[in-house]
Structure formats: C-alpha cells, structure tokens
TrEMBL record:
The gene is Gatd3a_2. It comes from Oreocharis arfaki (tit berrypecker). Signal peptide: none annotated. This is GAL3A protein. CDD domains: GATase1_ES1 (cd03133). It comes from the Eukaryota. The lineage of its organism: Eukaryota, Metazoa, Chordata, Craniata, Vertebrata. SUPFAM superfamilies: Class I glutamine amidotransferase-like. Gene3D superfamilies: 3.40.50.880.
Length: 224
C-alpha cells in the first residue's frame, strides 16, 4: 500500500513562499518512490509579496494557500484539515515563506514564533512517531519546537558556498545540535524522527540540490 505523505507549502517563490525547485523535487522523488503526496498550506495572508525580478517587496497582497496551489497544480488542501491519523510522514520544503509565513524567523530569528497550525501539525507527527523531513530553512521549525533535536542546514561557518551559515549558530542557541553536512547529504535524528538536508542553504548546482532532497525523501519513507 502506498505511503501517504503530507507536504506543507508556504506560498510560491523563494523570497516570499516555498522554494519551487525544492517543492518540485520533493514531489518528484515521492512519486518515484511510489508514495502518495498530499499537499497542504495554511489559508492565511503572506507576510508580504516580493517582486522576484527586482528582489524587492511590492504593495500586493497574496494568500499562502492560493499561491501554494500553483505548485500543487490546484490539488491542495487547507492545512487546518490535515489529519495525522491517515498519513505516514510529513515533509516541509524550504524557501523564505517558511521564515515569513509559517513562522517569524525572518524578522525575529531564534526569538520567533511558529504559526499555531504549523506547530500543531509538527507536534502531532512527532507525538505519533511519524517521520518529518525538513530542508533548507525549514529545520528552524524543529529547532524551535523540539529542544535538543539534531538537524542540519549545511555548514556553520559563513563563506561564499554557505552564505546563510549564521542560521546554524542561531539554532544552536535554541539548544539543538547542528550537524555540518554537504548539500547531497542528510542528517537523521532517529530519536525525534527528523530527516534534514541543506538544499539551497548552499550555493550549489541545482542537480546537487535535487539529489540531497531525494535522499531526504528516501530516508523519510524508510522511517515511515
């Protein structure tokens, strides 16, 4: 019987939503492994809308569920309707929408709050001992909610290849253990059922990102 995996999106676009290539890679690898993806997003306004050509905010207003539906080809459900009992695992791709729409990490860092719906879903999967896959910036959600957990966002020393390495230091301040890894690698925290990989936290060729996400998906399904 095909494993059913909830994929939670945060909009559409790297700077104000879910990172499209990461979300697509998750869906492709789930399909390849014979799993059934069920896509969800919260029905809330985006924090803001970014013009991806100029890299600057615009005065537009958009809805996270409506924008996420672009990636899901319309086959999407309101996160409020997610029922953990019928699902085997949870995966949350990255993108700044995780730090802006699913949480306030973008503006408050380690002092952020997590959207109640998102926190409830993460806690439900954790309590049910069902695996959670997180990539790019989304491991910050676990770092905030599950003290002492082990995650990776790549490296903790900032350089041209790892421009967001300060994220690892902020996560350590929350009491979690950060494990340095390469972009094609994952870290598995078996005690907490977490599988994490750095994805676009690294300046890497897109096929390396795709490969790392694929390894995350396979490990999540192995644990499911």
């Amino acid at each position: 019987m095909a494993k059913r995996v909830a994929v939670v999106l945060a909009g559409c676009g790297v700077f104000d939503g879910s990172e499209v290539h990461e979300a697509s890679a998750v869906l492709v690898h789930l399909s390849r492994e014979g799993a059934q993806a069920e896509v969800y997003a919260p029905n809330i306004p985006q924090m803001h809308v970014v013009d991806h050509v100029k890299g600057q905010p615009t005065p537009e207003q958009r809805n996270v569920l409506v924008e996420s539906a672009r990636i899901a080809r319309g086959n999407i459900k309101d996160l409020a309707k997610l029922d953990v009992k019928g699902l085997d695992a949870l995966i949350i791709p990255g993108g700044f929408g995780v730090a802006k729409n699913l949480s306030t990490w973008a503006t408050q860092g380690k002092n952020c709050s997590i959207s109640k719906e998102v926190e409830d879903v993460l806690r439900a999967f954790h309590a049910a001992h069902k695996p959670i896959g997180l990539c790019c910036i989304s491991p910050v959600l676990a770092a905030k909610i599950f003290p002492g957990c082990e995650v990776t966002v790549g490296h903790d020393t900032e350089c041209e290849q790892w421009p967001y390495a300060k994220t690892a230091e902020a996560m350590k301040e929350l009491g979690c253990r950060h494990v340095n890894s390469q972009v094609t690698e994952v870290h598995v925290d078996a005690r907490n059922g977490l599988v994490t990989t750095s994805a676009f936290m690294c300046n890497a060729p897109i096929h390396h990102i795709h490969d790392g996400v694929g390894k995350m998906v396979r490990e999540v399904l192995r644990l499911a």
